[in-house]
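Archive transcription. Copying these from loose printouts into the bound notebook so they stop getting lost. Printout 1 of 2:
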Amino acid sequence: MSRQLLNARRLLCPLPVIRTQDKVKQMQPGDQLEIICTDPGVMQDIPAWCRINGHTVLATDTQTGEYRIILQVGDNG
C-alpha cells in the first residue's frame, strides 16, 4: 500500500475531480490518496465521485481556506 499526495490548489470544479480520477487510475486498490484543494465544492464532489466509483473517503479536513480529503482506492480504480 502506498500513500500519494495530489495538489489541486487553485483549481476550480470540475478540475479537482478530474485530476483525482486521473491519479487514481495510476494507483492500486488499497492505496491512499491525499488531495489538497482550495475549492470548497470538493467537499461534496469528491466524496460523491468516490461513492459512484467504489472508493472510500477515510478523512476530510478544512483549515484556513484549504480542504483536505484522504481516500482509499477501491477495486474499481
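Printout 2 of 2:
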Amino acid sequence: MAEPSSSTSETTPETGSYAIVEASGQQFWLQANRYYDLDRLHAEVDSTITIDKVLLIKNGNDATVGKPYVQGASVELKVMAHRRGQKVIVYKMRPKKKTRRKNGHRQELTRVMVESISVGGKAIS
C-alpha cells in the first residue's frame, strides 16, 4: 500500500492565514489576495476600506480569538466593482384560494479584494 502524499507547501484554509470578520451583519472568512462579494458598501470603486470588526485571526498554527473582537486587528479591502447578484424568484401561492404572487429580487453587491490582514499594525498576509 502506498502512503498518502502530503503537500505542506500549499496554503490551504487549515494551514494558511485567514481572518473571520463581521461585515454587513454577516460573518465572512477572508483570505489575502482573494475577492469576495459583500452587501453594497458606500464606497467608490478603487477606494480602500478598513474593517476593524475582526472576530478571529489565524496565522499558521497560531489562532487569536476576540472577545468579541480582536484588539488592534484590521483587514484592508479594495473595492473592485459594484454588482448585482443572481435573480431570486419569490413565488407565493395559497392553495384553493386562487391567490398567486410572483416577485423577483437581485441583491446589490460590492466586490472587494482582500489586500492585507494585520494585527497591531503588522501585516500577517
